[in-house]
């Protein structure tokens, strides 16, 4: 602790050698604390380290020996500065230069239209070839993503009944598709 007191007194007197002692003693801890938060953003890590040292240089008079340990005070400052840098970095990453923005559309309108048409054909096939209850079960399960439990509850039947109707309906529809030589893939 005597060395910490020498560092603190030296920095209070604006002795640059005291800052060198601080860097030699606590530089690795400062770096590791910042690196843990900022990860691989080396430019920000270096800037943040400089800011931490500047903050320590300017505010060492705020440290109270009675209230805490000098090492943990430095770690707290490094951590807070790194978190500030991280917030700033995430905010700047959200800004987009719309003048130079090129938009790539990963949406194929034609494929989406064809998909919708196939969906309509399948629904019509289901409605035309299954009874009303089985059609409802099929549509709710495969097009509305309802669970078998939800379907069973709303139709006042057991889950096993829903599974059986789905199984029989699939067999029936496969047979019809095969007979009519229809392929939906």
UniProtKB/TrEMBL annotation:
> Which InterPro entries does the protein's record reference?
RNA_pol_sigma-70-like (IPR039425), RNA_pol_sigma-70_dom (IPR014284), RNA_pol_sigma70_r2 (IPR007627), RNA_pol_sigma70_r4_t2 (IPR013249), RNA_pol_sigma_r2 (IPR013325), RNA_pol_sigma_r3/r4-like (IPR013324), WH-like_DNA-bd_sf (IPR036388)
Q: Which Pfam families match?
A: Sigma70_r2, Sigma70_r4_2
Would the keyword Translocase turn up in this protein's UniProt record? no
Q: Which domain of life is it from?
A: Bacteria
Q: Which residues form the RNA polymerase sigma-70 region domain?
A: 23-90
RNA-binding as a keyword of this entry, yes or no, is: no
Q: Which family does it belong to?
A: Belongs to the sigma-70 factor family. ECF subfamily.
What's the protein called, per UniProt?
Answer: Sigma-70 family RNA polymerase sigma factor
Task: Tell me the organism.
Answer: Clostridium neuense
């Amino acid at each position: 602790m005597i060395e910490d007191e020498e560092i603190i007194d030296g920095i209070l007197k604006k002795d640059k050698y005291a800052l060198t002692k601080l860097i030699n003693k606590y530089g690795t801890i400062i770096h590791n604390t910042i690196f843990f938060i900022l990860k691989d953003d080396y430019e920000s890590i270096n800037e943040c380290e400089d800011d931490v040292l500047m903050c320590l240089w300017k505010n060492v008079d705020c440290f109270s020996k009675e209230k805490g340990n000098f090492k943990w005070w430095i770690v707290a400052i490094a951590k807070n500065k790194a978190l500030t840098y991280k917030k700033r970095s995430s905010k700047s990453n959200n800004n987009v230069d719309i003048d130079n923005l090129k938009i790539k559309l990963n949406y194929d309108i034609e494929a989406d239209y064809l998909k919708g048409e196939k969906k309509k054909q399948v629904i019509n096939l289901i409605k035309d070839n299954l009874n009303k209850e089985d059609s409802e079960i099929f549509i709710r399960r495969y097009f509305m993503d309802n669970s078998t439990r939800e379907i069973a509850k709303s139709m006042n039947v057991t889950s096993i009944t829903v599974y059986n109707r789905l199984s029989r309906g699939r067999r029936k529809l496969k047979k019809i598709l095969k007979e009519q030589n229809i392929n939906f893939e």
